[in-house]
Design brief:
Keywords: Kinase, Transferase. The protein is 30% helix and 23% strand. The protein has a single domain, classed as Ribokinase (UDP-N-acetylmuramoyl-L-alanine:D-glutamate ligase, 3-Layer(aba) Sandwich), CATH 3.40.1190.20. The relative contact order is 0.16. By secondary structure, the chain is α/β, with parallel strands linked by helices. The longest helix has 19 residues. The protein is built from nine helices and 15 strands.
Length: 370
């Protein structure tokens, strides 16, 4: 079959197929981003160079990354460029751009699950998700606490950030049905469930186990690190975590396990517990280390790009969201390639650090593929 014929077949498959769907569970919050000359020492007071408030939260960031990694940027002047509007307590849905003509592009329905406070911030956060064509029927409004917030301190020279968050409404979220995966996607069975830690540990573990039992693949974005029951891991299809999280959650916290020895030992620990694919996102621009149940391992080094790092806050969520798109693309076309998925995820996340803000910095598909 020629390349042109394969491309035509892919386009026909897309046209004749129902959209794929992903249910994402995690934090929805507002970031206060302070750009600083340097981080203050203990007991020291410094003034920030600038400050902006922008939507964030690992769950919401991931959802928006899925949207942008699978769609073209809206044309200037479209409704999608406007702020999401709240009308009579509801948000008006706006289109975020076309799927595009590339035969690799797929249509994805995105369902966000989390909690916001009954406050102005919560309404802004929901509207921002709707603006990106994300279903918010699983976003609960909490009357017991404020919306989740996070103070982000960004070093203007390196772009590295330190975060101090207040969980607020997030821990109050519960699925509407305990033994259902359909309730995470507006009553429909999702093709993939993504769990970001930060919600209740027991709730996270139950969702992972129920999804697996119902035959739905899962991605666990293990941030922030927390100890899970070892029986949970057999229900995890893809485990994404960084070196620190890998060390903590596998119990390999001594210095002798730093570097490749940590990657290999930690990955083997999770594989032995039943995880199908483990991806450890490495520090210092070293790429990622992966391991699979089939026994394949490797290190993927990122493509070196000549760009200035301004803010690393959204890099992880952009990586996860792009990885999600690749997982769904593989479900559509039956061509799972973990190395390709990691490379593409890194390409998007590398671009995301060149702008300020966890969500505004996430690139659209055509900005990468053009």
């Amino acid at each position: 079959m020629s390349t042109r014929t394969r491309a035509a077949t892919r386009r026909l498959t897309i046209l004749n197929s129902e959209p794929l769907s992903v249910a994402i569970i995690g934090t929805i919050g507002m970031d206060s981003i302070h750009v600083v000359e340097r981080m203050p020492e203990n007991g020291e007071s410094l003034n920030a160079i600038s400050m902006r408030r922008l939507p964030g939260g690992k769950g919401a960031n991931t959802a928006i990354a899925v949207c942008r990694a699978s769609r073209h940027k809206p044309i200037p002047g479209d409704d999608a460029d406007q702020e999401g509007e709240e009308v009579a307590g509801e948000t008006r849905q706006l289109s975020p751009g076309e799927i595009g003509s590339n035969e690799n592009n797929i249509e994805i329905n995105i369902y966000m699950n989390g909690s916001v406070g009954n406050d102005k911030i919560g309404r802004i956060l929901k509207a921002n998700l709707v603006k990106h064509d994300i279903d918010v029927s699983g976003v609960q409004v909490c009357n017991d606490d404020h919306s989740t917030t996070c103070n982000v301190f960004v070093d203007q020279h390196t772009g590295q950030s330190r975060n101090l968050g207040y969980p607020g409404a997030t821990p109050y979220w519960r699925p509407s049905e305990k033994d259902s995966v359909n309730c995470l996607a507006a009553g429909k069975r999702p093709d993939l469930v993504v769990v970001n830690l930060g919600i209740s540990r027991q709730v996270a573990e139950n969702i992972i186990k129920v999804s697996h039992r119902k035959g739905v693949d899962t991605i666990l974005n293990a941030s922030p690190a927390m100890f899970l029951l070892t029986t949970t891991y057999r229900s995890v299809t893809h485990l994404l975590l960084n070196e620190s999280e890998a060390a903590t959650m596998s119990g390999n916290i001594s210095e002798e396990f730093s570097g490749p020895s940590l990657w290999e030992r930690a990955a083997k620990y999770f594989i032995d517990l039943g995880v199908k694919y483990v991806v450890i996102i490495l520090s210092k621009n070293e790429g990622a280390y992966y391991a699979t149940q089939e026994g394949t391992t490797g290190q993927i080094e990122p493509e070196k790009l000549e760009s200035e790092t301004k803010d690393t806050t959204g890099a992880r969520s952009t990586f996860v969201g792009t990885y999600v798109v690749e997982c769904l693309r593989a479900k559509r076309f039956g061509e799972w390639d973990i190395e390709k998925a990691i490379r593409r995820a890194y390409l998007f996340s590398t671009r995301a650090v060149t702008e300020l803000g966890a969500q505004e910095s996430i690139p659209w598909a055509d900005e990468i593929d053009s």
